[in-house]
UniProtKB/TrEMBL annotation:
Pfam families: Ald_Xan_dh_C (PF01315), MoCoBD_1 (PF02738), MoCoBD_2 (PF20256). InterPro entries: Ald_Oxase/Xan_DH_a/b, Ald_Oxase/Xan_DH_a/b_sf, Ald_Oxase/xanthine_DH-like, AldOxase/xan_DH_MoCoBD1, AldOxase/xan_DH_MoCoBD2, AldOxase/xan_DH_Mopterin-bd_sf, Xanthine_DH_Mopterin-bd_su. This is Xanthine dehydrogenase molybdopterin binding subunit. Residues 27-133 form the Aldehyde oxidase/xanthine dehydrogenase a/b hammerhead domain.
Length: 788
């Protein structure tokens, strides 16, 4: 077993602990970015001047009327920017634009003594616009050939020969919608300037180092003149990886110009209308199967709705291409990706980062084609699972194909699927107007950033004279339990009780040049860096302990806060050991670092091994559908998920449950609507609140919900044998959509192929039922299928 994955005696990792801030969360004592204004004197409030048109060139911007509003202190415009007027890493996102690119685009910001004064001031700003034609839908952008960024192509084998050898060839299209992050805490930042001109920004950001970089270049400063701190986030899900930077820059610019602290905090409507979503996709595909139902070839074009700027759309598309295979061996493939440029908010990272979109395409294909091949969908999926020695279409070996089967078979056993399918068949035969169905789907999700440089982490660990330990790392806490795991890693590595370890807020002046807390790599990267720092400290302390105990340092172990010699009875308490080390002038701080080894990726050739490993899981979902309305309920869910050797089982099970429910929301409930008409509201987001945008809640939770973590699943080369857990469980929700498809099919003749919209709302399910009853494919406007 590798040093990184091996666990010592009596480790703190693996214990089922509650979230380290759980008590603060439930009592309301946990501080978030916007709570800090109540502890800050003379704060100014920033409010955006939004233009409610989808596209147009600004011909006049009059700020004078705003300055006449009582309480308004200043209006920020492009003329105030001392550095670069851009909030993006691609330099295509002007912070103060001269062209409105989406409905609700902020063109200026008003600073007021109160939020109400700033709001009234923003309403008083006069903007004149030369309106321009707009592209609101993905279909419009494709027709207009409006694309930007890279257009990768993934090639494997001989596609033409693969289709020639196929006994069955199907073609189809599939369009599926965006998803709103709807984190509980909206975007927020608080900036102030100290007496030396140092900029300090508190930001709700998943990527403090990049927020620091953007703030610095907007202000014309170097990074060492800007410090960014993130206490915690009330959710992020990827929506705070790139998008917080501009809001932090507005706050910092206001503070720099006025000399007073400036607060930016979007209300819910502003957050929904100004920040990006999960990318909606259009897929056109062609697939070939042999006579036994094994995939021979796949050709597809995936088009993502990028919105008005690139943001992270290029790597999102790249990851979609990398995951279109999911758990299936595709020997011959030609898959193209592109980013459509539309007049909508700039879409961004969202849990899974393109992986869910790519995997949804192939799962939709399998669900639609199985009846046409005369196969049960479960059987079709099993026949195409990866086997030992096979590799992905982009060339990475699939090193643990046995885990695809292991989680699958364990779900079958845990959920008693064979017995329940017989019960479902009997129920359906007796109930003409209500049908049940049970679907089983699996996942294979690559863990690492596709951009190899991001696969590094840092930490700073301090031991004080009294034996207490403070850890700093580059990851941010958005509720996912990363800080809890880092405390467990530090306590395990040092061999001390958990109560000895405390964690400091994430700050750029403690750990520099960090990567975003994203790609499910937070625990892998930061955990290994924390472990590295603690190993340095433990090594120094073992030398001191060896001298004190009259033994070689290699024969000393520190367990539960006591240093002991192997085979002896002499011991030294941790606090005494630390005090002795201090008196001997031994350094009691260490900077840790980790870089993920074994990664290589050629983005142009679209080939290599971009992932450290794959996470696996399988889910079986049983649904019941009403034939009159399309309404449904999730009766039972059984999940087996591979997290390696869990660092913190209670945290990981919570992540699996939450990811599944969020995925089910994307696939069945969350129906984003935009005004696509030619009237004055064209481009307006119509689902601007929880009243019109339906989120999963307790009523959508499965009536029975069983989550099991795969056992004996050590991941060599990862911190204490664990695997990432943040993103992969979201894709387990494919089983919900596939169960709904099968339930709709049960209303029609046997062997019918059902096309189902995404999201599969009750309305969409109803139309699928009607099509099944009529014995024809549904035409929901989102998909089409033909047998070539």
């Amino acid at each position: 077993m590798s040093q990184l994955s091996q666990r010592p005696e009596k480790p703190a990792v693996g214990l089922p602990l509650p979230h380290e801030s759980a008590g603060l969360h439930v009592t309301g004592a946990a501080l978030y970015t916007d709570d800090l204004i109540h502890r800050t004197k003379d704060v100014l409030h920033a409010y955006p001047v939004q233009v409610m048109k989808a596209h147009g060139r600004i011909t006049a911007l009059r700020t004078g009327p705003a300055l006449e509003v009582p309480g308004v202190v200043r209006v920020l415009t492009a003329a105030d920017v001392p550095g670069v007027n851009d909030a993006g890493m691609k330099h295509d996102e002007p912070l103060f634009p001269d062209t409105v690119m989406f409905h609700g685009h902020a063109v200026a910001w008003v600073l007021g003594e109160t939020l109400e004064a700033a709001r009234l001031g923003a309403a008083a700003v006069e903007v004149e616009l030369d309106e321009l034609p707009s592209l609101v839908t993905l279909s419009e952008a494709i027709e207009a050939e409006s694309f930007h960024g890279a257009r990768p192509v993934m090639l494997a084998g001989d596609v033409d020969a693969g289709f020639a050898d196929s006994a069955h060839v199907f073609t189809g299209e599939f369009r599926f919608s965006e998803q709103e992050h709807f984190y509980l805490e909206t975007h927020a930042a608080l900036a102030h300037i100290d007496e030396a001109g140092q900029v300090f920004v508190q930001s709700s950001t998943q990527h403090p180092s990049e927020t620091q970089e953007i703030v610095a270049h907007v202000l014309g400063l170097h990074s060492h003149e800007v410090t960014v701190q993130c206490l915690r986030m009330g959710g992020g899900f990827g929506g705070k990886e790139m998008q917080p930077h501009g809001f932090a820059a507005v706050a910092a610019l206001g503070a720099r110009l006025t000399g007073r602290p400036v607060r930016v905090r979007l209300n819910r409507t502003q957050d929904l209308t100004m920040s990006g979503k999960r990318h909606g996709f259009h897929a056109a595909w062609k697939i070939g199967f042999d006579a036994e139902g094994r995939i021979q070839a796949l050709e597809a074009t995936l088009t993502a709705d990028g919105g008005w700027s690139l943001d992270l759309s290029e790597p999102v598309v790249a990851r979609a291409l990398c995951h279109i295979d999911n758990t299936y061996w595709i020997p011959n493939a030609r898959v193209s990706g592109r980013v459509a440029k539309t007049n909508k908010v700039s879409n961004t990272a969202f849990r899974g980062f393109g992986g869910p979109q790519g995997m949804l395409v192939i799962e939709d294909v399998m669900g639609r084609c199985a009846p046409l091949l005369g196969l049960d969908p479960t059987e079709l999926r099993e026949r195409n699972f990866y086997r030992p020695g096979q590799h992905t279409p982009y060339g990475q070996p699939v090193t643990q194909p046995e885990r695809i089967t292991a989680v699958w078979e364990q779900v079958k056993e845990n959920g008693a699927l064979a017995d329940r399918r017989r019960e479902i068949a009997a129920f359906n035969a007796a109930h003409p107007d209500t049908k049940r169905a049970l679907a089983l789907t699996g996942i294979k999700f690559g863990i690492s950033f596709n951009l190899t440089a991001f696969n590094q982490g840092g930490a700073l660990v301090l031991i004080y004279k009294d034996g207490s330990v403070l850890i700093n790392h580059g990851g941010t806490e958005m509720g996912q339990g990363l800080h809890t795991k880092m405390i467990q890693v530090a306590a395990t590595t040092l061999g001390i009780p958990l109560h000895k370890v405390r964690l400091a807020p994430t700050r750029t002046d403690k750990v520099p040049n960090t990567s975003a807390t994203a790609a499910s790599a937070g625990a892998d990267l930061n955990g290994a860096a924390v472990k590295n720092a603690c190993e340095q400290l433990r090594g120094r302390l073992l030398e001191v302990a060896g001298t004190q105990l009259g033994a070689n340092a290699s024969d000393v172990r520190i367990v539960e806060g006591v240093a002991r010699v192997l085979g002896g009875d002499r011991e030294l308490a941790w606090d005494d050991l630390v005090r002795t080390a201090y008196l001997q002038r031994v350094q009691l701080s260490a900077a840790g670092f980790y870089r993920t080894e074994g990664l290589h990726w050629d983005a142009k050739a679209f080939h290599g091994s971009p992932f450290k490993y794959f996470a696996h899981g399988a889910a079986a979902t049983e649904v019941e559908v009403d034939g009159f309305t399309g309404a449904y309920r999730i009766r039972r869910v059984d999940i087996v998920h591979d997290v390696g050797d869990s660092l913190s089982p209670m945290i990981d099970i919570g992540q699996v449950e939450g990811g599944f429910v969020q995925g089910a929301g994307w696939l069945t409930l969350e129906d984003m609507r935009w005004d696509t008409g030619d009237g004055p509201g064209r481009g307006r987001l119509l689902t601007q609140a929880a009243s019109t945008y339906k989120l999963p809640s307790f009523s959508e939770m499965p009536e029975e919900f069983h989550v099991t973590l795969l056992t004996n699943a050590t991941e060599e080369g990862a911190v204490y044998g664990s695997k990432a857990v943040g993103e992969p469980p979201l894709m387990l929700a494919f089983s919900v959509r596939e169960a709904l498809r099968q339930a709709a099919a049960a209303f029609g003749p046997a062997g019918a192929s059902v096309e189902l919209a995404s999201p599969a709302t009750p309305e969409a399910v109803y139309w699928a039922i009607e099509a099944a009853r009529a014995g024809v494919p549904s035409r929901t406007g989102t998909s089409a299928l033909s047998h070539a």
